[in-house]
Amino acid sequence: MHKDLSLEACFGLIFLSNGKPVPAGSAPNGRLPMETKNSTAERKRDHIRICLERSVQFKRKSTWLEHVHLLHNALPEISAKEIKTETRFLGAQLSFPFMIEAMTGGVPEALEINSALAESAESLKVGMCVGSQRLALEDAESRRTFRVAREKAPTAFLVANIGAAQLSERPGEKAAGAVEMIEANALSIHLNPLQEVVQGEDQAGFSNVLKTMEKAVEAVDVPVIVKETGCGISREVAKKLITTGVSCLDVAGAGGTSWAAVESLRAEESHDDSRAGLGREFWDWGIPTAASVIETRSVTNLPIVASGGLRTGLDLAKCLAIGANLGGAAHPLLWPATMGANNVIREIRQYMTGLRAAMFVVGARSIVDLRRTQFLVTGELMQWLDQRKIKPRGEPSARKRK
Ligand SMILES: Cc1cc2nc3c(=O)[nH]c(=O)nc-3n(C[C@H](O)[C@H](O)[C@H](O)COP(=O)(O)O)c2cc1C
Fold it and tell me: What's the distance, CA 353 to chain centroid?
């Protein structure tokens, strides 16, 4: 267990390293005299605790990456040593095309988690996105839990994060504030309409998102990424998002962590049967990640991040082949992050190992080669693409990619 944070810290009681509990909301080790009874902070703690304690993955729907088949090459004619995984992404050089996806910040336990994630990003030269900075924009004291990411990852590609709904007021100021807070290399704006509806939040913030996004893009001097949070992005939505001047789309598709699930379980705990039921109803809602990558790639040459349910290096390799520039994961890194950077590093290295193995057996020397490798699409994914009249990359009428 990592030094100051025990699992109990995520279950409402924070245990000091001497084993004595202090009430949730008070400062562990006297270091973070910040959030008390604050609903955003409580929600953030609930999210971490529920994601660690309960099963929050999609149940009856997958990423559909099992319907993507890379063509085996029995004669790769390369040695494993020749394989190069380095890649450029939004101006940064990464050791392999991987990003730690947005998770947390703003509450005491996030300090340790973000510290471990950032140390890993720095050591492995991969990207990292912090969790929503909404809380820290409102409460100066909680900024430390985000700034720790830059302290621990002085040279890493670090991405700031804020919800589109929260940008409806003073978008430019908030976007610039989030970037400045962690000296970010990019800003990611998340779309989470399903989570908001299950959470019972006021959904008014979603009525003017494209305008808001334009203002955010104007206000910052770093690239802006738009990401979903586990329900995917369709080609129609991608087309609209592109008009705002954003630089990258992160599909965060269905098949991994379900935010309807997380909010349903939260509602269950507070005996809100109606919201709990709604969350169960929409548990498996969304566009599977593989379909979302192909949909978005069919309408843009902008960089695309594949995320939502990527659990292996082979998943990552398939996503790169069907059109993504980078892959990312959130949930698989959460538990390791509570136990320190070494555990996160081990987990991320496993993605790298699987990716390299996939590159070897398809005969790809570089990420560019892998992104050109042949693949086949079967099953439900093929039916989906047929009905949507979308040709995956490589088929005659498919668009050329960068
Ligand atoms: C504990 C936790 C907290 C998250 N918080 C945020 C957040 O603050 N902002 C955001 O854009 N996405 C957030 N996400 C969503 C992830 O970034 C990601 O899009 C989603 O979990 C799908 O990826 P996965 O299947 O690899 O977990 C969070 C995910 C987890 C597991």
Answer: 20
In a domain, 13, yes or no: no
Domain, as residue range, for 83 = 65-387
Q: Residue length, the chain?
A: 402
Instruction: Give pLDDT, residue 36.
Output: 38
Q: How much distance in Å is there from the Cα of 95 to the middle of ligand 1?
A: 23
The pLDDT assigned to 394 comes to 60
Task: Give me the pLDDT at residue 1, please.
Answer: 35
Q: With a 6 A CB cut-off, is 311 part of the ligand 1 pocket?
A: no
Closest atom of ligand 1 to CA, residue 102: 17
Residue with CA at minimum distance from ligand 1 atom 22: 308
Residue nearest to atom 3 of ligand 1 (CA): 103
Domain CATH number, residue 200: 3.20.20.70
Ranges under pLDDT 70 in the chain? 1-38, 202-204, 394-402
Paired sense of beta strands 186-190 and 224-227, if any: parallel
- What digits encode the pLDDT tens for the residues 161-195? 999 999 989 999 999 999 999 999 999 999 999 99
Residue 11: inside a domain, yes or no?
Answer: no
260 part of a folded domain: yes
Tell me the one-letter amino acid at 116.
Answer: A
Q: Is residue 397 part of a domain?
A: no
How many domains does the structure of the chain reveal?
1
pLDDT score for 393: 75
CB 61 within 8 A of CB 54: no
